[in-house]
Amino acid sequence: MTKKKQRGVIRVSIKELLPLVGNKWSLIIALDIWGLFIMDKPIKHSSNIPEQLNKLTKRGLQFRDMSLANEQLSSIGYFNIINAYKKPFLLHPNENDEIFLPNTYFEDIFNVYLFDKELRRDIQSALETIEHQLREITCRKFIEHFGDDPEAYLNLRNFTRFNTGRSRIIFKKAIEYPALYDEKDPFKYYRNKYKGVPLWVAMIDWDFGTLKTFIQHLQPEVKNKVIEEFFSENTLNLFTNDTTNNNISAFFTSFLILANKFRNRVSHGYRVYNYRPTSNNESESQILQYTPVIHNNIYIDEGMYRNGYGHGDIFTLIKCMHTMRYISSGQVLWNRTSDNIIKHLYNNQNLDFYLMNAMGYPTDYISSLIHTILERNKKIKEIEPNINNIFNYYSVKLKDNSISVDSDVLADGLVNNIPY
Question: How many separate domains does the chain show?
Fold first, then answer.
């Protein structure tokens, strides 16, 4: 009997179960018994806002503005604020007691919620730009090879073979719908006036996953043309001159999968700062395999990769964007992420280390960012001595081109006392 384990659940088909129980009536009885077993599990009961506030207070959380906390829990939800962002503030994060660190305030947790919300928006904006670029490049290269006739992109013989019949059918339906069935404009307009819906029009109805599949199954000569324009000259040269047999086509596929995973994540409003998607391929758990020409270029060696860096986190996503010919989206996301950290995490040296590390930033990059912030603030103070409320690492010391934290002067309640 074949068993497939997914997300902690063993899935077995009915066809596999039937021979074990003899007949369908025995199977129905067995399933009824299993249903009773499930029903024996306790129901997770909801709680009202006063109960939630009382529970948080008992666990050591403090409030600067109880009425504002009440409003935020009512409008956004306990699960979306507390459950999603409490971990950095727990005394024992890996235990079930959930006692908050001393001097932890509701506003501290909500601040991380705001940080992640802004990060989600920035990632979505960058990936939307990349999606538009991919559509334009792919459409142009496909038409250069097959011509303008809409039947070309509807003919699956113009693509490489699909692994399963099901994946082939899903893809076929996705590309056919706007071309043949969608009654809304502009699709209806082009069907009525011309032979069919042009590829560049049909593409606007596709989601990122359909676009990714379209690109993945392009014939090699067309896909290579897309790669040649999508990546920068420097990236192309790195792969051309590489002696470790790294395949730029494989890296391109990994990049598309990573971008698609993040696109889906941010579109649904899930927590994103510590998101590290894994591969759907059972033989490879990581989306981005260790690629020396890429990882060494962002100062991640094989040892760091084994320790979890460069697999597919936010830092890796941004750095992959920097391999593109049209680099603006990656650069904007890099700058906005840095600004977001500065905006929401001032005076919490250890909290921002925790979050940046969760985002995949190597320690050297965190140190570099802090050094840049310090130098910037020195210049701001020189220009405007009376300015206040700027990002200030009051307990960070510069010494021999390195950054360290004096733990004796750290504010109470900060987590992860790790020097930069």
Answer: 4
